[in-house]
TrEMBL record:
<keyword id="KW-0479">Metal-binding</keyword>
<dbReference type="Pfam" id="PF04167">
    <property type="entry name" value="DUF402"/>
</dbReference>
<dbReference type="InterPro" id="IPR016882">
    <property type="entry name" value="SA1684"/>
</dbReference>
<dbReference type="InterPro" id="IPR035930">
    <property type="entry name" value="FomD-like_sf"/>
</dbReference>
<dbReference type="GO" id="GO:0016787">
    <property type="term" value="F:hydrolase activity"/>
</dbReference>
<keyword id="KW-0378">Hydrolase</keyword>
<feature type="domain" description="DUF402">
    <location>
        <begin position="22"/>
        <end position="160"/>
    </location>
</feature>
<dbReference type="InterPro" id="IPR050212">
    <property type="entry name" value="Ntdp-like"/>
</dbReference>
<keyword id="KW-0460">Magnesium</keyword>
<dbReference type="InterPro" id="IPR007295">
    <property type="entry name" value="DUF402"/>
</dbReference>
<dbReference type="GO" id="GO:0046872">
    <property type="term" value="F:metal ion binding"/>
</dbReference>
<protein>
    <recommendedName>
        <fullName>DUF402 domain-containing protein</fullName>
    </recommendedName>
</protein>
Amino acid sequence: MVREAKGPKEGDFITIKSYKHDGSLHRTWRDTMVLKTSENTLIGCNDHTLVTEDDGRRWVTREPAIVYFHKQYWFNIVAMIRDNGVSYYCNLASPYVLDKEALKYIDYDLDVKVFPDGEKRLLDVDEYEDFSQRWHYGSETDQILKSNVLVLVDWINNHKGPFSEEYVDLWYNRYLELSRRSQ
């Protein structure tokens, strides 16, 4: 008996869609290469990936970025590989779901940016407060997001997972290897 593979395999390309709390589409990334999937995580790479905004504007990512999604944490992490070092953009967001169409999550506005020198900035607090009131996030969602900010900052401070140099090197090299194979 042959079992069908569940979900994308290493080297496959997927679409990523972020939504807002009210269900409206926020942003779409086309052709993210899957580097690894497990029961709870998906690691991929965006490299000159087409991005479409909710208003129809389109742009292409400038540099390779390793993306990390988890089914239990309320954040996802984008490690952007730049000439001056790795910068991180961390979205406070619902855990992801994956269906035949795309990897999907709800973006909750708050972001943490980490610069190559280690400086951290919490971004979009005003936007979070505006949307929280407009769409009634509720105290439970607010508590979950605030506790996940603490988890995220702990990971950053302790160079856990995506925040370790070895992690970025490992997955970027795997991306390069898979890219060479598919040419």
